[in-house]
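Hi,

I'm pasting everything inline rather than attaching a file, because the server keeps stripping attachments. The sequence lines come first, and each chain or strand is labelled.
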Amino acid sequence: MTQLHELDAASTAAAIASGEVSAVEVTQAHLDRITAVDGDVRAFLHVDTEGALAAASAVDEQRSAGAALGKLAGVPLAMKDVVVTKGLPTTSGSRILEGWVPPYDATVTRRVLDAGIVMLGKTNMDEFAMGSSTENSAYHPTHNPWDLSRVPGGSSGGSSAAVAAFEAPLSIGTDTGGSIRQPAAVTGIVGHKPTYGAVSRYGLIAFSSSLDQAGPFGRTVLDTALLHEVIAGPDPLDSTSIPQPGPDVVAAARQGARGDLAGVRVGVVRELTGAGGGYQQGVLDSFRAAVDVLAGLGAEIVEVSCPNFDYALAAYYLIAPSECSSNLARFDGVRYGLRVGDDGRHSLEEVMSLTREQGFGAEVKRRIMIGTYALSSGYYDAYYGQAQKVRTLIARDFAAAFTAVDVLVSPTSPFVAFGIGERVADPMAMYVNDLCTLPASLAGTPAISVPCGLSDETGPALPVGLQIMAPAMADDRCYRVGAAFEAAYTAANGLILDQIPQLGAVR
Amino acid sequence: MSDERPTLTRDEVAHLAQLARLAVTEEELDLFAGQLDVILGAVARIGDVAAADIPPTSHAVPLQNVFRADEVRPSLPREDILAGAPAVEDFRFRVPQILGEEE
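And the predicted assembly:
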């Protein structure tokens, strides 16, 4: 019999709603799973056993009182530690916030809790969401459940590993340059970056404000859509939130699962399919096979060129560091977090510099300094100003492509999961992980990663992700095409996660 | 014309660190000088794009200023805010000295 922690979110919610199992039983099963495997995976920075059981018990009481429950009531979730949670430690993976307990909830947190979803704890991440491997966490690396010697992607690597390791059926991540999609791809799960502004940023610890966007992870496209529905929508507390409600992504996932893509035009992005090298062959093989599957479902496949995508990496690694150098100025050792050198002799400015020196890790310092450089007078026009113009050109490439096709596809990442420690010494080797995900980040358009195969090119069989990109506010297209692909792939090959090696004593 | 930039010197990195309020160590200066130079070299190809007439994009969605009604709303309790502060005195954030003795 399938164990409770192995059920997907939709099935779990149905079992709770029907009274087949209680929310407390479901939560306990996941807490037990965390106890059994998280010593190896290390997805969590903080597990809230007491709070989770209390929340689950509240759902059970509401149900027995006959109250109307949300679609995901009682389903457990893991929350990325960049999202503030009232009363629960929130560090953003940084020493500078060690021990900080936020006095308020992010809108995402509030919506998750109001939906009756049970928050199990906070997940590990690259410090301030800067990285593609979760190795930049100030606390510890997280291990990929497919191969514990490898990274789970990043920056939302704790959230991706938790879902892939069956520690939670759902999790929340944030994506600035690929930090939901790339970890989803390398752990064999589904992750969606919503249209910029579709999900409130209120209570997200800011990295790059014009790019940051929270989004859902799940093991199926439908589960991911169900969580998307909970967190998306206008928020008066975020002035960049889109004032209109988004499309019905759950209906789109259900429609897609019927497997008919007749009339859907799919564009294969020439610039993101490895023509210039640098992509692993196993990734390209899985991707090509996935495109054939889409064609088999009736989609019309065309090749599309987006020439300015070639400059996305350069534009991103100017814009994101520039915004981070400004956003992270708030960590001054005055109002929250660490303070170093406050001995009555050091000035405020010296205390600030000593605090930031000790509180930030190497990657955060590098990005702050790159941003400081790019924004300084004399360089501003050549770097930051030029990057913003290239951002316009990338958005125009998307706009032109979407006059000819409904969605664009590419691999999610050029590589499968790499070994822990393999790329830490070379920042550029880390940055190229984001090659395929950056264009949609810069354009603010939605994109999903759906597992599309396994590659054993670098050793054990490891997951590959298919990225499906859509125009702004057309997130439903990502879910429809993703669900159609998932249904066809699973019918032919079974669930990708069924092939994950056993962790710990039991699975 | 990709990278006509002069190499980023150790002194320039020290200056950037100072601007960014980072009391970096000597070892870090050695490490970062090389790494930042490689990163800047890679992003310098942004200059290859002919974009003189292209308007900049600061945000993916068109932004306009948003006003809310001028209504009194409860703020967070003072104790809750101060609970996270590194140093508190008389219900205020205690701050290290701002001016030197001679100023």
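The two ends of chain A are 12 Å apart (CA to CA).

If the labels don't parse on your end, tell me and I'll reformat.
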